[in-house]
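Title: Comparing notes on inverse folding

I've been comparing how different people in this forum approach sequence design from structure. To keep things fair, I'm posting one structure and asking everyone to reply with a full sequence. Here's the target:
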């Protein structure tokens, strides 16, 4: 069985409310941390310090944080380009993330990859590929392994509107439905596949696809972190009970362009203004203030942590070019990556 660290509120057999005050505070903190890390990363990118492209999940933090927080530590998760909160919930530090962006030796990828291409087997987080629908195939494969072994584990995959137009997505969902796999499918329904609006992609609501494949479908306000948590928690219970996959349609909005290179002029200004008023951090902040939580202190601590992480990441050395081939293939002997294994191994162990 996995030796992943304990994360989230679904661990164990809790009785009573699933989200107690410390959980509700943690949900806010992870969202605030995601936004702060991504804002700092974007600033470094504009300074020319981050190679390649840059993507962020501003406005979608509640979906990835709430869904990941509902998982058991032994479950696996496949985040995509706007799901940095999933990495944070599973224990990846801001320092490791920023060092990864900067291509430093101490980053998650040890300088071998960049931007949002990061994953950690020890935390049950699968590094994404740019063919986004393919991650649903990977998640279905892991769910199949869990079922065949009789393990009480599930796999969760995030994806956007555009991924549901790809054949790989349909094949994976159909297979998972037939096999009743313990798979949670989280659609980040932000209205666009790059610049193509959802109405130009499919004539039916995405949840109609769940019905078509004979699986459970649930709509949720993707900007309400506690609602996302609860619908995911229920999906996990169904998965472990042998009831198969659940498709969660989390209605949200991408508040920036597809990437830092995209000014998103194709998005109507009034639409962005509508969603800005529904900011997920502001919603959870309001709940905590009503409960007497010092949210300003949380924000200050997050800002301090991210500032220190950025400074430390910038001071890290670049990787030694002589080690470029280390960790590329599975190895029987210990490697500088630390565990004597390929970086991708261990997700189903």
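Reply #1:
Here's my take.
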């Amino acid at each position: 069985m996995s030796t992943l660290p304990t994360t989230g509120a679904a661990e164990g057999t809790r009785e009573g409310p699933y989200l107690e005050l410390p959980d509700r505070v943690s949900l806010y903190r992870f969202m605030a941390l995601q936004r702060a890390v991504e804002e700092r990363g974007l600033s470094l990118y504009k300074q020319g310090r981050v190679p390649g492209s840059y993507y962020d999940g501003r406005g979608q933090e509640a979906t990835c944080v709430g869904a990941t927080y509902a998982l058991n530590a032994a479950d696996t998760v496949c985040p995509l380009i706007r799901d940095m909160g999933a990495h944070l919930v599973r224990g990846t530090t801001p320092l490791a993330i920023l060092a990864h962006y900067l291509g430093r030796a101490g980053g998650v990828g040890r300088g071998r990859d960049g931007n949002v291409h990061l994953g950690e087997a020890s935390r049950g987080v699968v590094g994404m590929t740019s063919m986004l629908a393919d991650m649903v195939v990977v998640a279905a494969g892991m769910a199949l392994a869990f079922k065949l072994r009789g393990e009480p584990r599930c796999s969760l995959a995030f994806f956007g509107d555009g991924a549901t137009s790809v054949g790989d997505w349909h094949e994976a969902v159909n297979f998972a439905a037939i096999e009743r796999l313990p798979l949670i499918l989280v659609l980040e329904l932000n209205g666009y596949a790059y610049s193509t609006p959802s109405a130009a992609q499919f004539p039916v609501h995405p949840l109609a696809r769940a019905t078509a494949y004979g699986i459970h479908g649930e709509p949720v306000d993707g900007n309400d972190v506690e609602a996302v948590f609860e619908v995911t928690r229920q999906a996990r219970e169904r998965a472990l009970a042998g009831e198969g996959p659940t498709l969660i349609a989390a209605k949200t909005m991408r508040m920036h362009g597809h990437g830092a290179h995209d000014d998103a002029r194709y998005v109507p200004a009034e639409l962005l203004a509508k969603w800005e008023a529904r900011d997920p951090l502001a919603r959870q902040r309001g709940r905590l203030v009503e409960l007497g939580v010092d949210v300003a202190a949380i924000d200050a601590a997050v800002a301090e942590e991210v500032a220190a992480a950025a400074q430390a990441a910038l001071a890290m050395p670049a990787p030694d070019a002589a080690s470029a081939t280390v960790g590329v293939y599975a190895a029987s002997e210990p490697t500088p990556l630390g565990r004597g294994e390929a970086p991708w191994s261990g997700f189903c162990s």
